[in-house]
Specification:
This protein is α/β, with parallel strands linked by helices. It has helices at residues 58-65, 88-98, 114-125, 131-136, 152-165, 182-199, 210-213, and strands at residues 19-29, 33-43, 46-51, 73-78, 81-82, 99-102, 170-174, 202-206, 218-223, 226-229. The protein binds adenosine-5'-diphosphate (ADP) and magnesium ion (MG).
Length: 231
């Protein structure tokens, strides 16, 4: 992997080349136990949804899988690298270049216009903005507006465009269509699915909306501390 291949402490564990991410025996709790010994594998060209009732730990699990939160027990491997063993510098490289994390609240630069937000991603990643993507996300007509002038849904789609411009290998998305009407939500999901297929990337989506979840290849539910496969 670009940039982190020199890590000597990386544990060689994955033999199957199509496995992008492997979560092994993940256990976590805050005030009460959330999940125990969760196992999850994400392959390239695969989309996975995680569903479950509010407060069951979906966002917490996604934060762990995407390297933002160290679990109480267990490990997460990207390719051959145990991500919680990486140095801070390598971890930042992983987050910047390989993981695309779409949050519930979008982190856009508020002092800048929509297009400037995209140009920052273009500059940092060296990838050109895909004009067709902006059209499909229906934000091509608001590019000169300030972030504060955009609706919640437009901000959400802009942050998705920004993250796809980075060309991440894995998309982690927490309720990415939460501010959108049903039709726009489906269209945005289709953009994400096409991205995954075209780039041979992977996606882990957290949602409480079953119909969006079942558009994914596999669906898991957090139930009684365990991850139960429901599709
Ligand atoms: N940083 C934190 N500190 C303490 N408790 C937390 C923290 N993050 C989440 N929780 C608690 O963990 C539980 C699961 O939260 P979350 O993962 O956000 O659930 P979901 O996304 O399924 O709604 C909730 O009870 C929440 O209050
Ligand atoms: Mg949540």
């Amino acid at each position: 992997m670009n940039g982190i291949e020199n890590n000597s402490s990386a544990t060689q564990i994955l033999s199957n080349r199509s496995v992008l991410l492997y979560a092994k025996q993940i256990t976590h709790n805050f005030d009460y136990p959330l999940f125990e010994n969760i196992e999850l594998e994400l392959h390239s060209n695969e989309t996975i949804a995680i569903i479950g009732s509010s407060g069951c730990g979906k966002s917490t699990l996604l934060n762990i899988l995407s390297s933002l939160l160290a679990p109480k027990h267990g490990n997460v491997f990207y390719e051959n690298y145990n991500i919680f063993d990486l140095s801070q510098k390598k971890l930042l490289e992983l987050r910047r270049n390989i993981f695309g994390i779409i949050f519930q609240s979008h982190y856009l630069f508020r002092g800048f216009s929509a297009i400037e937000n995209l140009q920052i991603a273009e500059f940092l990643s060296g990838n050109a903005i895909d004009k067709n993507l902006l059209k499909r996300l229906k934000i091509d007509h608001v590019l000169d507006q300030g972030i504060g002038e955009l609706s919640g849904g437009q901000q959400q789609r802009l942050s998705i465009a920004r993250i796809l411009t980075k060309k991440p290998k894995i998309i982690f998305a927490d309720e990415p269509t939460g501010n959108l009407d049903k039709i726009t939500a489906k269209e945005v999901m289709n953009v994400l699915f096409e991205y995954v297929a075209y780039q041979k990337a992977g996606m882990i989506l957290v949602t409480h909306e079953d119909d969006l979840a079942f558009m994914c290849d596999k669906v898991y539910q957090i139930n009684d501390l365990h991850l139960e496969r429901v599709k």
